[in-house]
Design a protein that fits this description.
80 residues, alpha+beta, Ubiquitin-like (UB roll), 5-stranded mixed sheet, two-stranded antiparallel ribbon, 7 strands, 25% helix, globular, MoaD/ThiS family protein, ThiS/MoaD-like
Length: 80
């Protein structure tokens, strides 16, 4: 049983990989432990969002990813 963490944008650059499979179920504390400290620090910031199974979480600390689900780490978007 596993969930997949997908790193996007600058978070991918911090980790050096596109994704990571981790044991499921995956909660907020498990996510912070599964990623490198530099990414965990970013996740704690309000401007970084998390999507689980295709839905952006309004409260990322309520994360509960089940087997086969994807957790996308969404850095802030800039544009012009």
């Amino acid at each position: 049983m596993s969930a997949r963490i997908v790193f996007l944008g600058p978070l991918r650059d911090l980790v050096g990989v596109d994704d990571l499979d981790v044991p499921a179920p995956l909660d907020w504390s498990g996510l912070l432990e599964a990623v490198p400290p530099s990414v965990a620090d970013q996740l704690k910031l309000e401007r970084v969002n998390i999507a689980c199974a295709g839905r952006v979480l309004s409260d990322k600390t309520a994360l509960c990813a089940q087997d086969g689900e994807e957790v996308a780490l969404l850095p802030p978007v800039s544009g012009g």
